Amino acid sequence: MLFSNQIDLLKNRDRVQRTNGYQDNYIAHRAKIGVILPSTNTAVEYDCQKIIPRGVSWHFSRFMISQADLSDDKKFMDFLEMVRQNIGASIDSVMSCKPDHVMMGMSAETFWGGIKGNDGFVEKVQQIIGIDTGLTTGANAVTAALSALGVKGNCGQKIAVITPYQPIGDKNVRLFFEDSGYEVVSVEGLKCENAHDAIALVPEHKVMELVMKVNNDSVNAIVQVGTNLCASNVFPTLEKLLHKPIVPINIATIWHALRSCGINDQYDNKGRLLENH
Which residues pair with 16 in a beta bridge? Predict the structure, then answer.
């Protein structure tokens, strides 16, 4: 199955509330989706707010990042440790609005330690949100998106990846995709020095240059990870130019969360994933 955390659609979907035959202004009668993100992140909400299907609402919960320095591998690891310590409170907070599904708006931790590490992260979060609530992580969303786009693991498919990370982050991203059965031709990291402006304000031309750098005829798809690196505006055009899937992680997680909730609305000019799948 494409999605391992399917919700009971008969129980949770189309909760129609009517008065005298007219549908009331009932918020999120199709799905409520909680989104967990670092306090420094400005890209995830921006991307979610551009994709709001009828009867769906996004509910954001931030966990505090008091030290945003990512300037070397050690500081990157310190940042991840902060994530692990603080994320639980933001999950508890968003669960108080009783979401149908929870989406992780941060990605580094979900790639850490390859498939085994992501599985462990999923298990910990699922214990907090409960087995009846679906869960989307960046890692699982990207592999599901690649599969939907015909670039499947363990089939000799080659991918390239761009990241905002330091080398230790790139190493774990490579490990995850290799564990998932892909030949990773290259991983190019921007080595951004902090978790806020250094990532969020990377200019679009720099992102496009990096895509062109990793692209070659042998690459079947290009993936962007790092949820504060906004690439959703330029990737649909690059897909048409390069004639191959180019998957930004925020679009992958949004798509995965919606599809997991049975929301199959499609959108033009948002890339192949939301246009066709």
Answer: none
